[in-house]
Every structure is written in structure tokens, then in C-alpha cells.
Predict the 3D structure of the following.
Amino acid sequence: MSDDSLELPSVPPPPPDPSADCVLTDEILAGDRKAIARFVELHADEVYRFVHHRLDRSEAVDDLVQDVFLAAWKALPSFRGESEILTWLLGIARHKIGDYYGERLKKLALADETDEDEAPGGLAIVPDFDERLDRQRLEARTRQILSTLPDSYRAVLVWRYWDQRPLAEMAAISGNTEKGIERLLARARRLFRRRWNDE
């Protein structure tokens, strides 16, 4: 028997130690204000970054982050410690972001778009760029162009591409048809591309 055929038995990784999260949640549920402050201090920055990266309007970020923590307080008694608390919080944030875009698309009329936005164009959300462009400059430019688009276009682009939501889910949450969301995305991509190329 050669040494090559010997395999070490695989050892499963140790399970995550949820004790720190469980202790903290127990203290919060017991009404310990310092534990609440510690909880927010530990997780607010990461939740804020997660939400800020996925929202189309920066002025809505603070309110949505607050909604995430309020929902977490209400749901904390049901937290079973099967995942890290941050993972759980980001799951809540993802649902809140979905609710945000669903409400925005319900309020924005899909049919009220101008003929200017019906011009033919490619379906890619952004043109090909030089791979050497700095990521931060690219994101800043993308956000700047998004800020010039109509609300419905900005909302649907960010929700679809930054939050990576499936069309069927976007349609269900917003109360629109999948075809309607596809048409809105096509118009939004064309206008985004045109403005990107004009600058």
C-alpha cells in the first residue's frame, strides 16, 4: 500500500459557539440596557453598510436600519442561536429592503414613463469598462447616475442588481406582473446606459 493512498479521516469543523450571542440575547431579554447598547454597538456598523449598499436613496438608510433593529427586538425571543446573530440581523435587513422596494414600486406608476425612455439600446445595466477603474470611483459614478434617474428606474435597478432579487419575487412583492417588471428594467437599463455614455 503506497503512502499516496492513505487518507486522513475528515474531521467535521467544530460547531459555531453561539454562547456569546445567547448570553447577550438573554441579557437583553432580561431588560439589561447595557446589553442592548452593546448589541447595537457590535452590529450597527455592519447592518448599516449592508443596507446602505443596497438602497437607492441614502436618506432612507437610517430609517431602514432602525426598522431592522426594531424588528430584531420584537423577534429576539424567537432567536434560537442556530446562526450567528449578525447573520440573523442581515436576514432581517434583507427582508426589510425587499419591503422597502416593494412599497416603492407599488407607489410609482409603471405606465407613466415618457417616450424618451423607450429608445432602443442594449440590455446590459452598465457598459463595458476598463478593468483598471477603481471600484470606489465606479460605485460613486454609478450612484451619481442612479440619482438622476426617475424613482421607479432607480428603485428597480438597485433592487434587482445590488440586492440581486429575482424578477418573480420583485413582481410578487410589488404587486406587478413579472412582464411589467421586465419592461421597467429594460427601460431603466437603457436610460442608465445612455446617461453613462453621455458623461
Notes: The longest helix spans residues 85-107. The helical segments are 19-29, 33-54, 61-75, 85-107, 135-148, 151-162, 167-174, 178-198. The chain has two domains: 19-96, 108-198. The domain at 19-96 is CATH 1.10.1740.10 (Rna Polymerase Sigma Factor; Chain: A).
